[in-house]
Design brief:
It is elongated and about 75 Å long. The protein has one helix and four strands. The chain is an alpha+beta fold and about 110 residues long. A two-stranded antiparallel ribbon has the order 1-4. A two-stranded antiparallel sheet has the order 2-3. The longest helix has about 30 residues.
Length: about 110
């Protein structure tokens, strides 16, 4: 009957929506707890005393190692660093450092 066909169609559509949502949510949850490694080495940057730098913690920024807001809508936030002198620093590129925003060699560990 027509009602049976339309009921089956609706149930199938709901199933596919839930199925797709489930897999997208798994990917989303994985990303939110695991940043993307922008590169497997640090970024050597000359910083200026008194300037604030926003280090990208998610790995999605197109302006690495700095944040461009690509993390919006997620759990990641940029890490603010205030340079206390003019010098060269090594910003983490793999995003796994325990000493944000600086490289601690995590990229070379398994």
């Amino acid at each position: 009957s027509i009602n049976s066909f339309s009921d089956n169609f609706v149930y199938t559509a709901i199933f596919f929506k839930l199925f797709i949502s489930f897999f997208f949510n798994i990917e989303y949850v994985y990303f939110m707890t695991n940043p993307i490694s922008a590169q497997n080495a640090p970024y050597k940057i000359k910083v200026e005393k008194g300037k604030i730098y926003s280090w990208c913690s998610c790995g999605l920024s197109k302006k690495q190692p700095f944040c461009d807001g690509s993390h919006k809508g997620g759990d990641f936030k940029s890490f603010k660093y205030l340079a206390n002198s003019d010098k060269e620093v090594w910003f983490c590129g793999c995003k796994r450092t325990k000493h944000q925003p600086f490289c601690d060699g995590s990229h070379s560990k398994p």
